[in-house]
Specification:
It is built from eight helices and no strands. It is mostly helical and 157 residues long. Helix 3 crosses helix 4, helix 3 runs parallel beside helix 6 and helix 4 runs antiparallel to helix 6.
């Protein structure tokens, strides 16, 4: 009785072959590279990305689809636009105490606004969450608020 001493893969003729990466893995790695290059993986970038998501939700679901409007849009526009401006222009933020301080304050203010939006949506669900686009817009907005909070929490001052 003779026994083969190699693993079963070698006897099947699969030695040295590496599986090809799927197109999805390539797209994910490209997206990660782009996010790192843009600076959105840093805590300040997370606050700015949360602001971008919130502005996108308001434009797509509120203005274009006319389904999910964030309550008190003026209260949301000010911190989100300020976060985007200060993320892009560090010299402007230095006048207000430095980029980390400004981004931390803006991230926490967006997160507090998110808590208020969540309470409003839960209090009046028939007015705000009655169709699928409303629910999708709300979930994306909550994700933007959470991303802003996590970014602000991670900023070291």
């Amino acid at each position: 009785m003779t026994m083969e001493s190699g693993p079963p893969e070698e006897s099947m003729g699969q030695t040295g072959s590496t599986p090809e990466p799927s197109p999805m893995q390539g797209a994910i790695s490209d997206a990660k590279t782009a996010m790192e290059k843009a600076g959105f993986t840093a805590p300040q970038g997370m606050v700015a990305l949360g602001a971008l998501i919130l502005i996108g939700v308001e434009i797509i679901f509120g203005v274009i689809l006319e389904d999910y409007f964030l309550p008190d849009t003026v209260g949301l526009v000010l911190p989100t636009l300020a976060a985007l401006i200060f993320f892009g222009r560090t010299a402007t933020a230095e006048k207000f105490g430095g980029v980390p301080v400004v981004m931390k304050v803006l991230g926490y203010s967006m997160a507090l606004f998110g808590v208020w939006v969540l309470i409003y949506d839960l209090r009046y669900p028939d007015d705000t969450l009655n169709e699928f686009p409303d629910l999708l817009g709300a979930l994306l907005a909550y994700g933007g608020f959470a991303l802003s909070y996590l970014g602000a929490r991670s900023i070291k001052v």
